[in-house]
Design a protein that fits this description.
26% of the residues lie in helices and 28% in strands. The protein is α/β, with parallel strands linked by helices. Strand 12 (229-237), helix 7 (245-261) and strand 13 form a beta-alpha-beta unit.
C-alpha cells in the first residue's frame, strides 16, 4: 500500500509536553509538529488515550529520554499510512499502544494496533493496552492461577486492579480484593468474592492464607505480604508506590530479587508488548466476562489534571483523555 498523506499531516498539533520534572505542573499543552508518517507506521487522530501510573512516574522523575510527550494508550482513527502498511487504511478505527499518545495526532507502529470493535467505545478501547495485558500476564504467566485458588489483589480499585479482579474471576479463582473506601462498591460490582476496605482492616494481619497475592498498591512490606501466603504461594509485584520516587521503586525490585535468589516465590511483572493479549481481552469482553471501568474523562486541554488526579491515589479504575 502506498503512502497516503492527508493535509493535516503537515503543520502543528496540540500535545501534552513535559518540561522538567517534579509534579504535574511541569506538563503543558504546547504546539508541536505533527509526526511524519514513516515506513511501517500509521498516523492516528487520537479520540481517546488513557492515563497510566507510568505517566505519573515519568512526570515525577522516571527517566524518559527523548520523549517529552506523555501517554501510551491510544484509540482513534487512521489519518494516514506509511510505506509497507497493509492492515489499515485512512478512516479505520483502531486501538493499541504508541508513545506520545496525549496529543491530537499519534504516530504508531502498524503491529501495535488492532481494529476497534464497533460496539466498543473509543474511551473503553483506550484503557486496554497497558493495564489489561499487565493484569493478564500477572495472573496467567507469573502466578499461573488455577481454578479454585485463593487470590488476593491489593490495589484492586485502580486501572490494573479492576482488570485483575475480573480476569482472576474469569480464570475461576476465589478473589479477595483490597481497596480504599471509595472503591468498595465498584469492586463489589466486578464480582470479587470478598472486598476488604483498607481503611478498616490491615489484610496482612489476617489468618487466611492465599495461593497468590498480586500487589499493585506496593504500600505493605514484602515480608508482611509473604506472611499471608500459603507455603507454596507466590507474591506477584505489579504496581509501584507513588511515594519514594523511582529510587523507591528500584529498592523494592532489588528486595524482590534478593528474596527470589533466596528461594522465595516472589516475582515482578514487566509487561510484554504485543497485541496477542489484547485479542484475548477482546474475547473476554465479548463473552461478558470483562468490562473496562472508567472513573473520569478529561479533554486534551486538561490532560495535566488527569495525570495529577491519577497521582492522588484516589482515582477509581481508569482515567481517560479525549479529543
Amino acid at each position: 500500500m502506498t503512502t497516503m498523506t492527508a493535509p493535516t499531516t503537515t503543520g502543528t498539533m496540540k500535545a501534552l509536553v513535559q518540561e522538567g520534572r517534579g509534579s504535574a505542573d511541569v506538563l503543558h499543552l504546547r504546539d508541536v509538529p505533527i509526526p511524519q508518517v514513516l515506513e511501517g507506521r500509521v498516523l492516528v487522530r487520537m479520540r481517546a488515550a488513557s492515563v497510566n501510573a507510568l505517566d505519573w512516574h515519568a512526570t515525577h522523575g522516571w527517566p524518559s529520554p527523548g520523549q517529552p510527550v506523555r501517554g501510551v494508550d491510544i484509540a482513534g482513527v487512521i489519518e494516514a499510512v506509511g510505506p509497507g502498511v497493509t492492515r489499515f487504511k485512512p478512516g479505520d478505527e483502531v486501538f493499541g499502544s504508541a508513545p506520545a499518545s496525549l496529543a491530537e495526532y499519534v504516530r504508531a507502529r502498524e503491529s501495535a494496533l488492532l481494529p476497534k470493535p464497533p460496539d466498543l467505545s473509543f474511551e473503553a478501547a483506550s484503557t486496554l493496552s497497558v493495564a489489561g495485558p499487565t493484569a493478564l500476564q500477572a495472573l496467567r504467566d507469573h502466578a499461573q492461577v488455577k481454578p479454585g485458588q485463593r487470590v488476593l489483589i491489593d490495589g484492586a480499585g485502580g486501572g490494573v486492579g479492576t482488570f485483575t479482579v475480573q480476569i482472576a474471576k474469569a480464570m475461576g479463582a476465589h478473589v479477595t480484593a483490597v481497596t480504599g473506601p471509595r472503591n468498595v462498591d465498584v469492586i463489589t460490582s466486578l464480582g470479587a468474592d470478598e472486598v476488604v476496605d483498607r481503611s478498616k482492616e490491615d489484610y496482612t494481619r489476617r489468618r487466611e492464607r492465599y495461593d497468590v497475592v498480586v500487589d499493585i498498591a506496593a504500600t505493605r512490606s514484602v515480608g508482611s505480604i509473604r506472611g499471608v501466603l500459603k507455603p507454596a504461594g507466590i507474591l506477584v509485584q505489579v504496581g509501584a508506590s507513588k511515594k519514594g520516587g523511582w529510587i523507591g521503586i528500584f529498592a523494592r525490585i532489588v528486595s524482590l530479587l534478593v528474596r527470589k535468589r533466596l528461594g522465595q516465590r516472589v516475582t515482578f511483572v514487566v509487561q510484554k508488548s504485543g497485541t496477542e493479549d489484547l485479542v484475548h481481552l477482546l474475547e473476554l469482553i465479548k463473552a461478558g466476562r470483562l468490562r473496562p471501568v472508567i472513573d473520569r474523562t478529561y479533554p486534551l486541554a486538561e490532560a495535566r489534571e488527569a495525570i495529577r488526579y491519577v497521582g492522588t491515589g484516589e482515582a477509581r479504575a481508569k482515567v481517560v483523555v479525549t479529543n
